[in-house]
Here is the input.
Amino acid sequence: MIFENLTQVLLLIGLIISAYLAIKFKDLLACAIALGIFSFLLSLEFYVLQAPDVAIAEAGIGAGLTTAIFIFAIRGTSRWEVEG
Here is the structure.
């Protein structure tokens, strides 16, 4: 019981930190990686909440495929945000 609560609190802190970093990074590749970490932590949270099918889908599509698509899209553009 205590281990589950501690795990959920640590995952929540990781989710908040990775979401904040995804917003604050100026490098688009770093943002894509932070979003991938967010999706992976979210899939771990689903697994802790005893939803393994949702966790597998989130890990495969959210963390894996979406991050790869973001990286391929960034390769075709400039990586840095233009200050305006």
